[in-house]
């Protein structure tokens, strides 16, 4: 019973820390009278094609991977961004949060 509780807490913690993920199934193609799985995935953010087995980072700070099972992407920001007295601002260049004072957004909290 303790193991089950510990595993549940661990899974919940990992889910909170990682942000969010999604998965898209491959779009089957019809060739020569048969359905075939494509050997590429199309990035839903910029429309680029990526070969099965490849991984890439998007301009929207997502880490994506293309497999025969489809495309999966996870946020590179991750976690909960809350600091008392500060506002979290996403930095798209570094895919991190930067924190600024609520009463003076020009001053960083750290």
From TrEMBL:
It is found in: Secreted. Its main location: secreted. Belongs to the beta-microseminoprotein family. This is Uncharacterized protein. Pfam families: PSP94. Keywords: Disulfide bond, Secreted, Signal. GO terms for cellular component: extracellular region. Residues 1-19 form the signal peptide. It comes from the Eukaryota. The keyword Cell membrane does not apply. InterPro entries: PSP94. PANTHER family: BETA-MICROSEMINOPROTEIN. The keyword Lipoprotein does not apply.
């Amino acid at each position: 019973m303790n193991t089950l509780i510990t595993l549940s807490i661990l899974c919940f913690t990992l889910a909170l820390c990682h942000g969010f993920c999604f998965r898209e199934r491959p779009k089957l193609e019809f060739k020569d009278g048969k359905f075939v799985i494509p050997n590429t995935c199309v990035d839903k953010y910029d429309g680029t094609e990526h070969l099965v087995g490849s991984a890439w980072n998007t301009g929207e700070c997502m880490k994506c991977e293309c497999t025969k099972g489809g495309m999966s992407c996870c946020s590179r920001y991750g976690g909960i961004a809350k600091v008392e007295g500060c506002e979290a601002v996403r930095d798209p260049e570094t895919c991190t949060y930067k924190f600024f004072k609520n009463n003076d957004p020009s001053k960083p909290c750290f």
